[in-house]
Specification:
With about 475 residues, this protein is of the alpha/beta class. It is built from 14 helices and 22 strands. A hairpin with a 4-residue loop joins strand 4 and strand 5.
């Protein structure tokens, strides 16, 4: 007979919803703790103009929940949020989520082999297993620019979008040129009086096709989900994923050259003004930063209302931005598309494992987890999309589902009474990290650019092998790498 376990799931974003559905299907006892008032995670917090998922919509779904209602090949953020809300209702897990319940602490009790979970309210609860689905990109990073607080107009990070801020017919400054910055330029170029795009480094832009699904196509998807499967499991998407991961791990091979050639040709063919073209030409390898997929950025950035500013910002003043060359940009609104602290994960919540070992201490050098999911010294603690997992231009839903299959097999060790606690050994994890770091340094992420993929020492904090290797690794954990007690 299976041992009845008590599960805590932290976070009601994509991965937390996945865990809840899987646990409910097995009849497990669990609670999802969500710090805000709604599900959705990244897709709840980000709602800036132009927000679009850069994975084709039919590929950005759970394998068990195809969705016929997507309106276009690339879905808006609001549509993705709507999809997750639909899934939560369809699978009946809404009532298993505790909202306004921020987890502030976790402490492992060795004698009782359980976790004590503490909330911001002061409540404490006991669980046998913790599933950490807190996500990665949810702590906004603000730029270190002199005078930032002095700006008198509307000023906000893109993850805290202010709907009352002057945009239409206004003078807007946009700091940041990642995918968020690119999407905002495409959305605001035709709305503003002036948009100054402060660009620290230009991006490689991969051209993709955006097209709407007709009512007839959506009817066909509803009638036959096999048509959806042909998209999300077909060679056009999965084949591209495999080719992409092969390219970034073989950076001098023909696949990476093809990626760079396509992006460079896109720049050459799309931007007319030679001065602007050089401003938009990257000086690092393609995909070293997250590759940008866009069908409209180069058109938008050539709008007369848009100015690409590549100079260095000296300081922010009450009415605008002063450059080091003395140029002054007078602004009504300042938008910060400056990314997130990608090294936080569950933190600032405190996590204390065996023998008083804290997560902060374990991650003092860099965030790490055994195959991105488990940590030595932290029994029965499992992460979805944790540190050192695959990153790039593909669906993290797929990654999380494969990780869940792996984690669920480790939980079976507990269910079947083979032990009360399971975690990777220190030796196994050290071996994994040594191999991973050596391989990561040879990937495109380690080729010389600065990006949020890099840890404090400049080592890519990512899975450095192919997609097929990841799939094979997730198929079955090697129990000899784990301590079971």
């Amino acid at each position: 007979m299976d041992r009845k376990l008590r599960f805590a799931v932290i976070g009601a974003g994509m991965a937390g919803i996945l865990a809840a559905i899987k646990l409910k299907a097995r009849g497990e006892t669990f609670t999802v703790f969500e710090k805000t008032d709604r599900i959705g995670g990244t897709w709840r917090e980000n709602r800036y103009p132009g927000l679009t998922c850069d994975v084709p919509s039919h590929a950005y779904t759970y394998t068990f929940a195809p969705y016929a209602e997507w309106r276009a090949n690339y879905a808006t953020g609001a549509e993705v949020q709507g999809y997750f809300e639909h899934v939560v209702e369809t699978y009946g897990v809404h009532d298993d989520i505790r909202f306004h319940s921020e987890v502030t602490g976790l402490v492992w009790d060795e004698a009782q082999a359980h976790w004590t979970l503490t909330l911001a309210s002061g409540e404490a609860h006991v669980f046998d297993v913790v599933i950490c689905a807190s996500g990665v990109l949810h702590h906004p990073r603000l730029p270190d620019i002199a005078g930032l607080d002095s700006f008198a107009g509307a000023k906000f990070h893109t993850a805290r979008w202010d709907d009352s801020a002057p945009i239409d017919g206004a003078r807007v400054g946009l700091v940041g040129c990642g995918s968020t910055g690119v999407q905002i330029v495409t959305a605001l170029a035709s709305r503003v009086k002036k948009l100054v795009h402060f660009q620290r480094s230009p991006q490689w832009i991969m051209p993709v096709q955006q097209f709407a699904f007709s009512d007839e196509q959506r009817d066909a998807f509803r009638a036959d989900t096999g048509l959806i499967d042909a998209i999300r499991f077909g060679d056009e998407y999965l084949g591209n994923v495999k080719r992409f991961t092969d390219a970034i791990t073989h950076i001098d091979g023909p696949l990476m050259k093809a990626v760079e050639d396509i992006c460079l040709q896109n720049l050459e063919n799309s931007v007319r003004d030679p001065v602007l073209k050089e401003k938009l030409r990257p000086d690092y390898r393609a995909a070293c930063k997250r590759l940008i997929y866009s069908w409209s950025f180069y058109d938008a950035v050539q709008n007369p209302s848009v100015e690409v500013e590549t100079g260095r910002i000296e300081r922010i003043e009450p009415t605008g931005v002063r450059m080091t060359d003395g140029t002054f940009h007078e602004l009504d609104t300042l938008v910060l598309a400056t990314g997130f602290h990608a090294d936080r994960f569950i933190r600032p919540a405190g996590v204390t494992g065996q023998n008083g070992l804290t997560l902060d201490a374990f991650w003092a050098r860099r965030p790490t987890a055994h195959y991105a999911m488990t940590l030595p010294g932290f029994p029965n603690f499992f992460m979805l999309n944790g540190p050192t997992g695959p990153v790039g231009n593909f669906s993290l839903i797929d990654i999380a589902e494969r990780q869940w299959d792996y984690i669920d097999q480790l939980i079976d060790v507990l269910r079947q009474g083979e032990g009360r606690a399971v975690m990777p050994t220190t030796t196994a994890h050290a071996d994994y990290e040594e191999r991973r770091i050596a391989a990561a340094k040879t990937t495109i992420f380690g080729s010389g650019c600065s990006s949020w993929y890099l840890d404090a020492e400049g080592v890519p904090a990512s899975w450095p092998w192919s997609y097929d290797t990841f799939v094979e690794t997730m198929s079955k954990p090697k129990l000899e790498e784990f301590a079971i007690a």
